[in-house]
């Protein structure tokens, strides 16, 4: 296999957002080429990474022609950071690309019903903001930061390899030391910059991912439309004196922090969920606004990262459901209750099911906070809890589904398909797994509407809503 391929014309995108073209072998056989970062209409030279299931996988080595006009990226880290990979094209072109990604996911599923539904897909719903839309960012501390080619050539002069930012693409052990990030509103950048400077000047150690040592491990910043601000610092070592110095300095520099927390995590995994979150100062959570709802957000809570677009996502999903005042509604994978509580004023009763205990407690608190008495929330895995809820509540007319990126558990899929509610509204942040899940319902359901939603401008990720109606 050649290491480089010249003159590959990109004709489409696949369900992973990669550009697709064709390479002709010397014997005349054709091979599909999937190129990360390439767009339809591009003429590119490709650096080959590997071959998988007959497809050549690679990256752009050189761009010769493009159907999309490239623009100057706003961020100086574009090309090094693996996050905002679409900054060099207009937002209008980003939306067209994401629409094509959803279409590809449904065609690649190789189900006639899904392919037939593609021409009727609604235009993608654009985000109100292109930048500054994220309410949550996680910055990693790294003992060995990512070096660019120029730095490598003079590596002998570098005495401090510490970095605070995002992991370099494909590297768990290398952190890209950020100078700027445009995804989260003020004061996110100021907090990250302050903490990085403080740590370097004081000589605090950054976490070494290979050797599993180091004081500072993770910085989590959450902002809310209400103006509330939450900061959580994850420490890789339990050093009370240094921890107090850091928290004291941060609290004094940013008195507007609503909730300042810390976590001690000496395990091999960066996840916050198994560990106790300690409130150091302020409130135990922050308040987010979702339409008329006020939602309590705790440090471990999941909530859509684009809150303004989240409201529009929920409004679109609920409009498609055509809810009635007497309806019983089930909300599967209900999280902190945002969808269920948004729907509650429109129905007789709503029941949410969620596997994360903290999220269930938060959902119950949010129901009380908003004076909603016709919503209840059950803790447990959907596939196990659903039969019990049906026995107690009866069969719902409408079911809302918003599972994790991996999609529905097979047993949950089977249970829901056997339930046969009149309407299913399936929300997904991964159209590929959504398309695979939908196959379980097509015997009894028809697809009435597909609505892509852009929750993540500048990235290739896309959310999608599908309305299923029982035949």
Automatic annotation (TrEMBL):
Active site: 429, 429 (nucleophile)
SUPFAM superfamilies in UniProt: S-adenosyl-L-methionine-dependent methyltransferases
Highest taxon of source: Bacteria
Protein family per UniProt: Belongs to the class I-like SAM-binding methyltransferase superfamily. RNA M5U methyltransferase family.
Matching InterPro entries: MeTrfase_TrmA_AS (IPR030390), MeTrfase_TrmA_CS (IPR030391), NA-bd_OB-fold (IPR012340), SAM-dependent_MTases_sf (IPR029063), TRAM_dom (IPR002792), U5_MeTrfase_fam (IPR010280)
Coiled coil: none
Gene Ontology process terms (BP): rRNA base methylation
Keywords assigned: Methyltransferase, S-adenosyl-L-methionine, Transferase
Keyword Transferase set for record: yes
Species per Swiss-Prot/TrEMBL record: Alkalispirochaeta sphaeroplastigenens
Pfam families xref list: tRNA_U5-meth_tr
Record-level Gene Ontology MF annotations: rRNA (uridine-C5-)-methyltransferase activity
Chain ranges of the TRAM domain: 1-62
Protein name (record): TRAM domain-containing protein
